[in-house]
Amino acid sequence: MAHQSAVRSEQTTARLRTVALCTFGYYPIYNRSMSHAEHRQAAPRVIRCYVITISDTRTDDTDIGGRTVVDLLTGDGHEVLGKSIVPDDPERVREAVEAQLTNVDVQVVVTTGGTGISSRDQTYEAVNGLLDKRIDGFGELFRALSYEEIGTAAMLSRALAGTARGKVLMSIPGSVNAVRLAVTRLILPEIGHLVREASR
User: Fold this and answer.
1) Domain shared by 13 and 106, yes or no
2) Beta strands 160-164 and 167-172: pairing type?
3) Same domain, 11 and 69
4) Pair (146, 192) in one structural domain
5) I need a surface site. Which of 12, 31, 41, 143 has the fewest CB within 10 A?
6) CA-CA distance, 27 to 101, in Å (whole number)?
7) What is the pLDDT along the chain (200 residues), one digit of tens a residue?
8) Are residues 26 and 42 in the same domain?
9) 55: CATH
10) What's the number of domains the chain is made of?
11) Contact between residue 134 and residue 162 where contact means Cβ atoms under 8 Å apart
12) What is the domain extent for residue 86?
């Protein structure tokens, strides 16, 4: 009985391989997990982004942090479809972010500013409430990297990221040094990978 079962199994496998060869031109490897390198290789190369600066005081002329995000993204070959500045008010932040989550052209929303712990810093609450899934490792890695530069003050940053409506949403601090750290060390290396996973 065991021998007959093994023979039938081998026959079934052979038939499946024949069908695969005729259909696809190769034998697929079933249930093989992809490595992170293969995920990156399969990720889109150009990502369409929108940048939102959250500040009560920044203007287009003084928004160095927001411009830095734009410059770093475009310098790496990605598209920035727009940039706006909104006050650090939870309702205004939610409205600005939701407008881009409903924009079919936007794949990633990056907010900068408002991630601290002062009474006016409410970006975390506004953004966190919009997320379908949080990517906890983003904030953890940002604080770990920030600790190397500024020490224990890194604990005050509430940088976060997650997915919402099939898009990627990331909130980073507004200082230029923090922006460069987050974009160059975290966002650019994984942005395509993140979009690929969020849109599946």
Assistant:
1) no
2) antiparallel
3) no
4) yes
5) 31
6) 39
7) 555 554 455 655 555 455 444 444 444 444 456 666 666 667 788 999 999 999 999 999 999 999 999 999 999 999 999 999 999 999 999 999 999 999 999 999 999 999 999 999 999 999 999 999 999 999 999 999 999 999 999 999 999 999 999 999 999 999 999 999 999 999 999 999 999 999 99
8) no
9) 3.40.980.10
10) 2
11) yes
12) 37-198
Instruction: State whether 93 and 151 are in the same domain.
Output: yes
Q: Is 113 left (phi over 0), alpha (psi -120 to 50) or beta?
A: left
Q: Assess contact for 101 and 130: CB atoms under 8 A.
A: yes
pLDDT the model gives residue 37: 66
Residues 76 and 150 in one domain: yes
